[in-house]
């Protein structure tokens, strides 16, 4: 299922109160990806993001994604408590519809150099363009099958278990991409977030058998997933412009 956010000039996949499955720019628009030179505490980071889109003459509705960095892995109660606060911010900016977020989200915990508090690392938004190329961002997917409540092979980190988890994540992303009209091969960036060395497994044993061969390789982040008992996340995107904002 996809829903059009006409004010923001993109379609999104409704999923949770804190994140959509992803967003694809409507014709005549493209998604830009802004990275903060260092993660900023949420209030400061959101203020910087707001200044950026307002200076471009774009409405708050143009936001289609946020990336967070966290100081520590949360248990389920902590994760839900934070999401309630975060969703409240999205609502204050008009980025919820029927209680569900229009914006994608990836949030992970750096193994080294983690921020002292939950912080904003990057954000995405739409702008007008004459370029007809597709543009999209997708939320980080963990190894929880669609419709399930628990991760695949919970608590296991053997090679066999990690392979099964990685397959689950990729299949989830493919299923989420389809109703948005997103094709994985159009992605210019594939991001793997894990404490385990999974890049070759992902490329050779998971993506290749599915006919997916990332032209620009896989970008790996040494991070933990945001919640206990999760081992990895993957997201994909295609943004025609990516740049750094001094923070």
Structure description:
The protein has 247 residues and is of the alpha+beta class. It has a single domain (3-245), classed as 2-Layer Sandwich (60s Ribosomal Protein L30, Chain: A), CATH 3.30.1330.40. It is built from 4 helices and 14 strands. The chain has helices spanning 42-55, 76-92, 159-177, 199-207, and strands at 3-5, 10-12, 22-25, 29-41, 63-69, 96-97, 100-101, 104-110, 119-128, 136-138, 189-194, 219-224, 232-238, 241-245. A 12-stranded mixed sheet has the order 1-2-3-10-13-11-12-8-5-9-4-14, covered by helices on one side. A two-stranded antiparallel ribbon has the order 6-7. A hairpin with a 2-residue loop joins strand 6 and strand 7 (100-101). Helix 3 packs across helix 4 (199-207). The longest helix is centred in the last third of the chain and has 19 residues, at 159-177. 42% of the residues are buried.
Short description:
The protein has 247 residues and is α+β, with helices and mostly antiparallel strands. The protein has helices at 42-55, 76-92, 159-177, 199-207, and strands at residues 3-5, 10-12, 22-25, 29-41, 63-69, 96-97, 100-101, 104-110, 119-128, 136-138, 189-194, 219-224, 232-238, 241-245. The protein has one domain (3-245): 2-Layer Sandwich (60s Ribosomal Protein L30, Chain: A), CATH 3.30.1330.
